[in-house]
Design brief:
The chain is an alpha/beta fold. The protein contains 8 helices and 12 strands. A hairpin with a 4-residue loop joins strand 7 and strand 8. The longest helix is centred in the middle third of the chain and has 15 residues.
Amino acid sequence: MDNTTILICDDNEAIHESLRIFLQSEGMACISAYSGEEVFEILQKKHVDLIILDIMLPSMRGTDVCREIRESSDIPIIFLSALGSEADRIVGLKLGADDYVTKPFSPWEVVMRVKAILKRMTPPRPSGDGKLSLAEMTVDAGAYKVYVNGKQIDMTAKEVEALAFFIRNAGTALTRERILNNVWGYDYYGDVRAVDTLVKRLRQKLPSEGVHFAIRSIYGVGYRMEEVE
């Protein structure tokens, strides 16, 4: 876990101290934030591999922080909360969190959850050169790069993986569940609406003019990537 940076956001200093001790014992670096606003300031300046995020923050709730992050990033998020009902956990996961830990908690349990999520998020190296093409788009799965008409498009790792999956299944209607299982993994506990959020980001980033491909919405099913005239 060397060179891994964890951002801890909680307004309780004791939470920072206890988590920092255990995370650093596993070779992870820690950055502290005490409000949602600080989270966004840090993300603009530094690379972060995972966020441990308290829900009950001053001025800006952790749920709002998560929702805003998910508009542009798939960085892993673990919620910390004193609210431990099943309904609360479901709401947190539907917002796009990768895990939900109820206070009080064991710092070592949190570290184990962090390691499990980071392991799941580590992309496997594809066989061969890893390049896939559809019309004007080329996805270099090995280098995690996307090109349209020769121009590189800035994408997150999860967005690249989703495009690669779409191209491998071009012309096929894919259910949200199938996309979720193949792109996030079968042990992902999130909601299928994470797929809708990701597709929305892909459509915003990919050009709609001068290209002959599109991600179509299939009502009641999911999505299909196809070549268009």
